[in-house]
């Protein structure tokens, strides 16, 4: 026996993948299992407890066992019968339990074995985190002796149970919050990695060929467990929970990245989301090492290796196989997997359409206006008008900026309308830290002589929509307040618009907060009104705009021409106070150019349809756009095409060419 074994506690809601996680743990000669505990999750506590005890009997885990939490800390319980069947562990017959249930509660048993352990203990939770939270709340004294919590839960890019939330965390977000805030080092295996930990039907024969009783049962579990995920589009079974064990025992097969991860407790759409601070906007130190990829081949090899640890072990099985809950039944599809496609027809416009640009004229808005002017010259569309809104700078400044930019482009003929000075409900919070105090990097442009129109944005947009007779595309480059106010003032306006193309939101992460992109964060209530308007929305969020970053050379190329566009871009970039380029460390993201180019060249872009919702009353996710691919579409329609990818090279080359022609 290895005398330096690491003491561990297994806590789960078995569950096929919990069971396989425990196969790995028991097989590993370097781990010493001090205790096993069950928790309600995939199924009720009665079912997960009997399953857990049967798994222990099968594998020869003789550590003390305690029954854990019956229900989440404060949330209402849910179960996941569609993945694991009625028993929670449908499939092969199992041995009867041979271990007593401890009279202690799960947290009390954990505390006892941690206190008695000579070495600090690693806890491996593979279900909702209720027991662990209760341990930390009721036995704060043992915290020092918890070396690490390596868990399956969450997903920093997406959810499965809800569009933004994974099952284990969604089941008990409050418990997860306590664990993530505990200061104990966390290794997080969320859907980001566990959906890559796929075991495919063509791996099953290799598992059976191991030829012992445990391997046969594992193969039987997988033959049941893969049916549901295969029916909803995976190419096998994502076997989530073993990642939590392997992230500790075999970290080399993963990529592990440190992030600060927080848990959304409120919210209409994002409750239970694990929000990672990808861009460091929170200023908080990382609290978790997040697994993002796994070497799948090594994963299967390690499983085979682990199964051989059970060679020669046979236990008596007296029970019956669980009935196959899916036999003869059509599996109800509850989820689509992500994938990108060309923009679908109803989100496209005809050639030569009219566009209306609504802008909070900052630096990238100015670049967008330059690009738009060049595309109009080429006959790609007609610019019907421009309205301005608070955002990067105050509303009045944004109107002045728009006029001055147009004047430098020789386009004083395009009317500029003033719009909302503040968001619907939240206070106005300009982005001077990105665009400088005047919104244009501190660059002073010659004053345009053209007046800002008297008519407010909402009235002007309505009139333009009427005039365009159903062909107007509204392009929103700032907070979406003008559009939302126009929809409220003119209820027939949505029916008159062809579509809305926005720069805003993000499927993954945010740039103003860990969860939210600036334009949506600046006025989430208005954004929600736009997504709910019924007008098809094309969303160019950070997912695509950040892929289209300009290098120093790209920017030089755009500015090096003698066109009005190149000269204007030089003035803004080179005569200002350099706030903008310093913010982007010389390689700027010109976010707002993306929707303009998309309106003219949709073939460069790809993404997918989703229902998009905005968090407006949440804890940490205010302004987060939640893309719902089909689990729970609340508007009854996928109202948005979420742009996720683009051909960067062609994009940058095209934009440089357009600026040099503008
Ligand atoms: Ca589990
Ligand atoms: Ca903007």
Enumerate how many helices there are, as a single number. 26
Q: Level of helix content?
A: 25-40%
Provide the CATH architecture of the largest domain: Alpha-Beta Complex
Oligomer: single chain
Which ions, cofactors or small ligands are bound in this entry? calcium ion
The backbone outline, from C-alpha atoms, is elongated
CATH class of the largest domain equals Alpha Beta
Q: What integer value in Å does the Rg equal?
A: 28 Å
- Give the number of DSSP strands: 23
Distance between the termini: 76 Å
Largest sheet: 11 strands, mixed
Number of domains: 2
What is the strand content? 15-25%
Could you say which structural class the secondary elements and strand pairing correspond to? alpha/beta
List unreliable stretches of 5+ residues. Answer: none
Mean pLDDT: 94
CATH-assigned fold name of the largest domain: Inosine-uridine Nucleoside N-ribohydrolase, Chain A
CATH superfamily caption of the largest domain? Ribonucleoside hydrolase-like
């Amino acid at each position: 026996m290895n005398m330096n074994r690491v003491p561990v506690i297994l806590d789960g809601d078995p569950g096929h993948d919990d069971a396989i996680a425990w196969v790995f743990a028991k097989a590993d000669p370097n781990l010493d299992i001090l205790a096993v505990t069950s928790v309600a999750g995939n199924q009720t506590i009665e079912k997960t407890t009997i399953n857990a005890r049967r798994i222990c009997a099968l594998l020869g885990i003789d550590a003390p066992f305690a029954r854990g939490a019956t229900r989440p800390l404060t949330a209402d319980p849910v179960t996941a019968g569609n993945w694991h069947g009625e028993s929670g562990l449908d499939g092969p017959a199992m041995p009867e339990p041979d271990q007593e249930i401890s009279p202690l509660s799960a947290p009390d048993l954990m505390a006892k074995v941690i206190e008695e352990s000579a070495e600090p203990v690693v806890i491996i939770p593979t279900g909702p985190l209720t027991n662990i939270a209760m341990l930390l709340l009721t036995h704060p004294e043992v915290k020092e002796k918890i070396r690490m919590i390596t868990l399956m839960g969450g997903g920093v890019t997406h959810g499965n149970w809800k569009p933004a939330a994974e099952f284990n965390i969604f089941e008990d977000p409050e418990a997860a919050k306590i664990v993530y805030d505990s200061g104990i080092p966390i290794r997080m295996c969320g859907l980001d990695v566990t959906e890559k930990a796929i075991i495919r039907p063509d791996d099953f024969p290799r598992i059976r060929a191991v030829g012992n009783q445990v391997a046969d049962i594992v193969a039987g579990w997988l033959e049941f467990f893969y049916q549901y995920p295969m029916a909803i589009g995976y190419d096998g079974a994502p076997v989530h929970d073993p990642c939590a064990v392997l992230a500790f025992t075999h970290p080399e097969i993963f990529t592990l990245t440190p992030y600060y991860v927080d848990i959304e407790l409120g919210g209409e759409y994002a409750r239970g989301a694990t929000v990672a601070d990808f861009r460091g906007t929170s200023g908080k130190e990382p609290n978790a090492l997040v697994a993002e990829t796994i070497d799948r081949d090594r994963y299967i090899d390690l499983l085979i290796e682990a199964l051989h640890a059970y060679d020669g072990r046979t236990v008596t099985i007296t029970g019956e196989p669980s009935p196959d809950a899916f036999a003869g039944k059509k599996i109800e599809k509850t989820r689509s997997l992500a994938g990108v496609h060309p923009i679908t027809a109803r989100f496209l416009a005809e050639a030569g359409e009219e566009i209306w640009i609504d802008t909070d004229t900052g630096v990238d808005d100015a670049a967008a206006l330059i690009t738009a002017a060049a595309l109009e010259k080429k006959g790609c569309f007609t610019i019907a008008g421009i309205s301005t809104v608070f955002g990067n700078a105050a509303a009045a400044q944004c109107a002045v900026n728009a006029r001055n930019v147009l004047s430098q482009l020789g386009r004083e003929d395009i009317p500029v309308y003033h719009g909302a000075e503040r968001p619907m409900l939240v206070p106005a919070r300009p982005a001077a830290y990105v665009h400088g105090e005047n919104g244009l990097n501190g660059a002073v442009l010659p004053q345009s002589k053209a007046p800002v129109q008297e008519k407010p944005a909402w009235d002007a947009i309505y009139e333009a929509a009427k005039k365009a007779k159903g062909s107007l595309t509204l392009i929103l480059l700032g907070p979406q307040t003008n559009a939302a106010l126009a929809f409220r003032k003119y209820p027939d306006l949505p029916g008159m618009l062809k579509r809305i193309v926005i720069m805003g939101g993000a499927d993954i992460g945010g740039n103003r907060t860990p969860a939210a992109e600036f334009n949506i964060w600046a006025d989430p209530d208005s954004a929600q009104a736009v997504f709910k308007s019924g007008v098809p929305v094309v969303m160019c969020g950070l997912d695509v705009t950040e892929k289209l970053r300009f290098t120093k050379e790209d920017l030089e190329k755009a500015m090096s021409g003698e066109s009005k566009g190149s000269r204007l871009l030089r003035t803004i970039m080179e005569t200002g106070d350099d706030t903008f380029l310093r913010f982007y460390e010389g390689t700027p993201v010109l976010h707002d150019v993306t929707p303009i180019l998309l309106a003219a060249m949709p073939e460069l872009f790809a993404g997918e349809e989703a229902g998009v919702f905005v968090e407006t009353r949440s804890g940490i996710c205010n302004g987060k756009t939640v893309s719902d691919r089909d689990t729970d579409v609340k508007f009854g329609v996928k109202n948005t095409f979420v742009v996720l990818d683009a051909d960067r090279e062609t994009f940058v080359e095209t934009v440089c060419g357009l600026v040099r022609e503008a």
